[in-house]
Each structure stands twice: as structure tokens, then as C-alpha cells.
Amino acid sequence: MFWRVRSIRWASALALYVLLVLLLTLLPLGPDASGDLSGCLICGDRGVADALLNVILFAPLGAILRVGGSATWRVLLLSACLSLLVELSQYFLPGRDPSAGDFLFNTMGGGVGAEAARFVSAFMYATGGRAGRLAIASGLAAISVWLATAYLLEPAFPTVPYWGQFTPELGGYDHYRGKVLEADVDGLPVVYGELEHSDSIRDLLVSGTTLTSRFVAGSRSDYVAPIVRIHHAWTEDAAMIAADRLDFVYKYRTRGATLRLDQPDLRNEEVFRVVSTGDTVEASVTRESDSYVLRVADTATPPLGFTIGHGWALLMYVEEFPPWMKKAANSVWIALLLLPVGYWALRRWETVVTGLIIVGGMTLVPVATLLQATRPVEYLGAAVGVALGRALREIVCRMSVRA
Fold this sequence. Notes:
Layout: H1 2-26, H2 47-67, H3 72-90, H4 100-123, H5 128-152, E1 163-166, E2 179-185, E3 188-189, E4 193-194, H6 198-207, E5 210-216, E6 224-231, E7 237-244, E8 247-252, H7 255-258, E9 266-268, E10 280-288, E11 291-296, E12 299-300, H8 323-344, H9 349-368, H10 376-402
Antiparallel strand pairs: 1-4, 1-6, 2-3, 2-5, 5-10, 6-7, 7-8, 8-9, 10-11, 11-12
Helix pairs in contact: 1-2, 2-3, 2-4, 3-4, 5-8, 5-9, 8-10
């Protein structure tokens, strides 16, 4: 009877996850179908982030199939069939861009999930010192992710020469319908065209400076609309100030962007609510060490920056998220990273060591890097992640006893 129930649960999990994949991949996202099947493997400015997301999306499917008894080759075949169905369907869907890369990385994700499930099953019931060592290794892995996050979010300004642009019309951005009157970097003028003091401007951006612009406000944008852009090549931004509906936005080129990951931004939220079309506005961004202050007229933010919880934004930064949702995403990201720690942390000395490693990492990684101090809500996320891992172990152990 138990095995019949288990089979029903497995089939239900498989069906539900396939439906989730179809929902996430076949939902129209734009007004027109692409009508094109791209042959590129890593496409666009955030191609590596998209590839990783495709692997992550299909990995649970591979794990479910592996748990059901499928060999890895069969998991790869089934993942490829589902991915092919998705990509061919996206050819006719508005706002979707099917590509050979999506097919490849979806299929790869199924294989990764199957092998991960095989690996985890070997250690699922680890106890004693073995479980303690796994907990410590999981804690060190989380710290490695936080260090990588710090590295990838550091500024990586491209080489000179630089050019300036005012309210440019760029793909992927809205067009700001205002007029820039002047802009400068610590007094060095930013003009439309090649910048005379490119070397000095880059040095100032690297060391910390103030980017200022005075402009006539346009109508509200529907999404991110560049106001002043400093760039090297057409696709290599150095720094940009922009408007996104009511928000004042600053983006700088990060190491992650050079590796074609996603790029989060910094915002002065809803500051344009009191600005009317035609008003003359002075806006600035000041960088000091690990923090940025965004000012519009007399309204300035507290020091802004990124934390260890912003790793998710390197994969898929959603500009439309309100501030509270971005903070929640930071905490959820940390909770997911530390869930394995809770799963393997038993009542042994290794658990104490792991706890010290985690708290030390959350405290000291920001000190040693350009990240800001870990927020209290992120510490809460860490505690929740460990607790959920512990609860998951209890469930697994009870199911094994019933078996």
C-alpha cells in the first residue's frame, strides 16, 4: 500500500512540475511572436544568466525522474523532448525567443538534476561525523557564494575612450522624453559624443566620485529610460543615470555584467512623484567606498549598496519588484543557500562550528569586500533556512521509517 501511495505522489510531483515548466516557458511576454529560431548558444548581454536559469529550471525535473527510477540517459532524452516542445511552441508565442542554447541548457539541466539526485541520495541519511562534515562543507559553500557575489557586483568599468549620450534610444530601454542641459563627473564635463577627459573620468569612477546631471523633466517612462549614459562601445556601459516611472535609477558596469550575468541597479524610490513635466531637475549619484547616495533636488537616499543576499539578482533581476519584495528575495536566497546546513546539522560539535562559520561569514564577508553589512532580515532568512532544512530531514527520516 505504501509503495502505491509513493508512486501516486511521485507521478503527481512529476505532473505538477511539468505543468509549472510549461507555464513559465509558454506564457506570452510581448505583443508579437519572434518568428525566428536563433542558433546561438549564449545569446544577448545576459546570456550566461539565461543559460544558468535554464539549467536550474530543468534540474528539478531531472531529479524527479531520477527518483522515479529513470537512468540518466533516459532523463536526458525526456528533458530534450520537453525542451524541444517548448522551443517549437515559443516560435509562435509573442515575446518569446526560442534558441538552440535554450534547448541545450534545458536538456543539460535535466542531466544535472539527475546526477544531483544520485549524489544527494548517497548522503541523505548521513549521521554522526559524516553529517557534521557535510554541514560544515555546506556552510563553506554558502560563504563561497557570498564571496562570489561580492566579486561579481564590484565595478568593472570598461577601457577608454568613453562617449556620452543624452536620453538615447536603446534596445531594451524606454526613451526618456526630457532634455539634458548639462552633466559632469566631479566637474569634468560629459557631452554628447566622445569625452575629452575619458582617462580622468574613468579614474574618478573607479576611485569614487559624483556624477551630476541637470535636465528638463520629461513625461513618466514606462520602464527604465536612460537620461545620461557614459559608455565605451555601444553595448559596454560604464555608468548610467535613468528614470523608471517614479524612480531615479543608477547603474554601473559590474564584473558580473562583463561575464554576461544580470545587473541589478540602485534606486531613489518614487522621488519623481513631486516632479512635473517641464521642471528643471538636478540629480546626482555620489559613491563613497561601498555605498552610493542618489540625490534628486533636496531628496537624498541613505547610503545604498548591495549585500550578500543579492546573489539572486545576478541571475534574474526584476526591476518591477517593489523594495519590500527585493528585500524578501535577498532573505529567501540566503535561506535556500543554508537549507543544506540545517538538513545535516545534528546535535554535535560540528554543528557549533558550522554555526560559527555561517555567522562569521555573514558578518565578515561585507567587511572584507565592497558589500554592505548584512541586514537583520537576512540573518532571519538564514535562521529560517536552517530551520527548514532541519524540518526537511525530519520528514525524510519519517518517510524512511514508513518504508
